[in-house]
Amino acid sequence: MSTDVSPKKPSDLAIRSVVGIGMVAVAITALWFGDKVFWALCAVAGLFMMAEWADLDGVPAKTKLLAQYAITIPLALMAPGWAAGAGFLTLGATIGAAFFLVIVTRRPTLAAGALYVGLPILSLLLIRRQEEGIVFTLWALALVWMCDIGAYFSGRAIGGPKLAPAFSPNKTWAGLAGGVVLASAFGALMHVQYGLPWRLTLATPVLAIVAQGGDLFESWLKRRAGVKDSGNILPGHGGILDRLDGLVPVAPIAALLVILPKFYPW
Fold it and tell me: CA-CA distance, 126 to 137, in Å (whole number)?
């Protein structure tokens, strides 16, 4: 997620917009066509995310490949119908992948990447398998998109004090406010149109702030690595991590909120 308020050429903004719309269309299409298609998209994204995390951690090519192999096991086990699906077994496999990496590579930061990649994917697949899975998953994804859009345009239009100049010099408090407002409006719309439960509706502005926290964390990772983007696979956007940084912390919290009534009906 990016809230960059620096000037951009019209052509750059056009490319950014087209690619962004394309990514949203792919995600919604995969979500609509079933949990297996959605899992496949998430699994592919997870492999790219692990590779980019390894690059940010500065590991050699062989170690990066090992990290991708490690995350492949829990991602494969998450396949609905074909394997265990999203649950405690795959949670254990994800944690196991992290332990494997830290033992073999002696790099705790690389091992943390297995959790950074695996937990949000596990969470999204867990949300998708619920009775109202399409609505709930769309809510979790789109609140981050709305936060991104609101932060980007309000930051450019208003400017003002910087949010965290030490990590990301272009993000502003106005961008944060704009992102929260637009995400909250989206949550309210989902409540009215699709019956989004109150607990999710009221949590939306909080999760919008969490999303921007994820954005700042990834900005810190890139600054530490001395790079502008986590990758270059997405024209106008950078890497997969650049696009999903806000979703990473949001997805696990959203999953907990979605499954909460199974334990505490309210």
Answer: 9
Q: Comparing 237 with 187, which gets the higher pLDDT? A: 187
Query: pLDDT tens for residues 207-254?
Result: 999 999 999 999 999 999 999 889 888 887 889 999 999 999 999 999
Helices marked H in the chain — which ranges? 10-32, 35-57, 61-77, 88-105, 108-128, 133-158, 173-194, 198-225, 240-244, 247-259
- Residue 113, Cβ neighbours under 10 Å: how many? 27
Helix axes 133-158, 10-32, angle to 10 degrees: 170
> In Å, what is the CA distance from 206 to each residue of 1, 147, 199, 209, 212?
16, 11, 11, 5, 10
Strand, coil or helix: what is 261? Answer: helix
